[in-house]
């Protein structure tokens, strides 16, 4: 059954009341969303929805990826993208390309769209005010010709410290921060860091109410070839089993691990949704049924229900 506009608005009222004043981290990724050569309109609709959240009293923080466009730029420059465990192998040239695409292209585009639609966007990356201090990721173990080997994946970082002070200043002054996932280590070396991981870390550090991961699939699918096999809810204790069964695999692993970090740190829930579906962000947040996969801690949910019953 298709909801009428007035029904959607009425259904959204308790959610708007509950979310007003809260911080939400929104990670935007996926080919269609971040590649303006493919579909600028998709990115613009997402930004419009985020600006709407801002004007109903929610404090959005945007983290963006850019994997597909980085791949395209690399291939144009004669480099073949390589991934291990869902992470990009990043040599000196790849790091330079990633910084060019993330900071110089995608970030600026998103900020300009926020400004166009009446809010104040500000572009940041992990280097600004030491927002994301990281360490070079350790060698990854992979199987080559039946033997386990350690492989150096280059300038890839893992978060050590999030310094959220700058973000708090931005929010207090009514800005929408847009963050590129470039970090810095304690010696000043730039590092490429997975945007899903950054989103989880920042959501945790900011005490966000929710973390929304917008990608180009409709959440976690039991069968990657069956769009109707979406898992609507995943409890924390189910994650390891889904990874072992390879239902969660490849690039979905960093998303789920980022979600796990966020929920364990107190974020109420994490939602993985298809950002190329019009207004999926609003439908996930402001309707009872939702459109993606929600990751949550069932113990926290039980505690909240008990508290409500005792009021």
UniProtKB/TrEMBL annotation:
Domain called Aspartate/glutamate/uridylate kinase: residue spans: 23-274
Site (Transition state stabilizer): 27, 255
Annotated localization: Cytoplasm
Transferase recorded as keyword: yes
Pathway per the UniProt entry: Amino-acid biosynthesis; L-arginine biosynthesis; N(2)-acetyl-L-ornithine from L-glutamate: step 2/4
Coiled-coil region list: none
The EC number(s) this enzyme carries: 2.7.2.8
Domain of life: Archaea
A GO-annotated cellular component: cytoplasm
Recorded catalytic activity of this chain's protein: N-acetyl-L-glutamate + ATP = N-acetyl-L-glutamyl 5-phosphate + ADP
Pfam families for this protein: AA_kinase (PF00696)
EC class (word): transferase
GO biological process terms on file: L-arginine biosynthetic process via ornithine
Record-listed substrate binding positions: 66-67, 88, 192
Keywords from the UniProt entry: Amino-acid biosynthesis, Arginine biosynthesis, ATP-binding, Cytoplasm, Kinase, Nucleotide-binding, Transferase
GO terms of molecular function: acetylglutamate kinase activity; ATP binding
Family: Belongs to the acetylglutamate kinase family. ArgB subfamily.
HAMAP family xrefs: ArgB
PANTHER family from the UniProt entry: N-ACETYLGLUTAMATE SYNTHASE (PTHR23342), N-ACETYLGLUTAMATE SYNTHASE, MITOCHONDRIAL (PTHR23342:SF0)
Chain's role: Catalyzes the ATP-dependent phosphorylation of N-acetyl-L-glutamate.
Protein known as: Acetylglutamate kinase
Naturally occurring in which organism (per UniProt): Methanimicrococcus stummii
